[in-house]
Design a protein that fits this description.
14% helix; 5 helices; leucine-rich repeat; Keratocan; repeat; single chain; disulfide bond; little secondary structure
Amino acid sequence: MTLKVYTSLLLLFLVNSVWTRTVRQVYDDLDPEHWSHYTSECPRECFCPPSFPNALYCDNKGLKEIPAIPARIWYLYLQNNLIETVSEKPFVNATHLRWINLNKNKITNNGIESGVLSKLKRLLYLFLEDNELEEVPAPLPVGLEQLRLARNKISRIPEGVFSNLENLTMLDLHQNSLLDSALQSDTFQGLNNLMQLNIAKNSLKKMPLSIPANTLQLFLDNNSIEVIPENYFSAIPKVTFLRLNYNKLSDDGIPPNGFNVSSILDLQLSHNQLTKIPPINAQLEHLHLDHNRIKSVNGTQICPVSIAIAEDYGFYGNTPRLRYLRLDGNEIQPPIPLDIMICFRLLQAVVI
């Protein structure tokens, strides 16, 4: 189980660098006789590296408009400009685009020409962070794999905007203006291969509805969530990394076995209002409970197996897998109770 999860995460986070490096290797031996051809096509505001002719660097140029994109371009960098509009004209010849970075511009929804994004049939990565969007732009390219919309003003998600995005693996909506009403039961319908969903730093009071079943990483930090519904994680049986730091969770808001979920390896509940450690699963490896209201720790009570069994098994049985436990910022006084160490034989670090 753990090996499969880490393999999937490597694909999610390293595919960008591996892909880019591979393309660079292909063109490192480009014949210098062709350089002049690539240079002549390059927009004068931008930089076209001869050794990487599929890339166009137009970042940090003070641009207010997107220049005409040559047909050969796969990777387009337009971040840190003053661009307000995304129209169809610059992309007429750019039918091979895989990657567009439009972070840190001044793009609004009204500034995006209708249908311009969906016409980029081969686009896989779309970055629109730090703009002035008020809703998720639509329609989107059906082949998209990553969509990054962090730090906008998004409060609305159009109905069906994700319904055809079966290849999307990462959706980042953190630090926007989403309320519970923006996340309906069918909002994420169609995201059958989503692996990471980031809705941190919004204005949610409830756990979002109908998270895609294949989600591995769910980030909900810095909201105002008070309650975990009963059996909430049974609908996302592969969730491995769960972050709920900086919310309003109390003991009463967590069902008896709310976090006793075998798929969860990393559970972060820092900066909440807990007075005791909730029941955990023996498979959990990292637990963050710092800056709550916990006064004491009883290893016998929190151990996923009986202390007697844990003591008998030692290092050779199916002992709890907890390796990292953070409890600082509570009201717990050292030393660490002996029964904690007896239960969690694999512990490598305890912060108290």
